[in-house]
What does this fold into?
Amino acid sequence: MQTHKGARSHQEFEGCTPTPKGLGDSTHMVLERNWEHQAPMYSRIYSRGTADYASTLIDLEKAFQLRDRRVRCIDEGTPGGIRLTGLGILLGFDKAIEVLREAKVEGVHPHEGCGACDLHAKKVCTETKPDEIGIEWGKKLAAELGVPYSGFISADAMSRPREGHIARAAYYDGTGRFDCTGSLGLPPGFVVSRRHLNNHVDYARSEAEIAITIALGPHGYGMERITDETPFMLVAIGDPADPMHSTERLMDELRPLELKLNGAVRVDGFTAPGRRI
Ligand SMILES: [Zn+2]
It folds into this structure.
């Protein structure tokens, strides 16, 4: 997934995943309900921008208080903690360990139906099921890091429908302490722990691109729903106390993704609460 290049990579990604089972009627209805539920938030986000929108959220501060430092996938269904696609399985073991050690990760949570594990399985041509790969990978990381293996997150325990993604945004977090579920007013979204990927910026951007690919693909809202009028939002979250991770700087990193997709992706951002330097 590190070589996604806009629409072309979108097709490549689809080619790497199993033939979509198709979203069942009930899943489809859940996705539709979620679309409607998020519609008022997005009408304000699209018209006012995320910075203005975020400034109206009285509980925004709570989105910057991690409840734990366990690593989870960027998937919107596994919120909280430190985030890395497939727990870093596409980054490689040594780099994943370096990132997770620096992030002071305290536990490891693989999840059911992880697309990154599925892609890894295809890359290395193994018959092992992606869920088993995820569990094995998680246990290997935990052992090397010397932290507990914190358990497998089943699809039923995830905060999204089993087969579908409801995220219309990916947060590109420059603070290292962001959890969108902390604030009631923030829409669900993928989270890229950009703050912990300073040595791997291209990879961080590729995680944002994976989020786009999923949202625009057969397991997300797709290109019928995500259009230039209702674009997928890439939301940079700047650290007010660190110019290296300013909103503007992170938005610049994301711009190449916006340019690729003819308006179906919009880059925006806001700065975390706190004193600016
Ligand atoms: Zn995953």
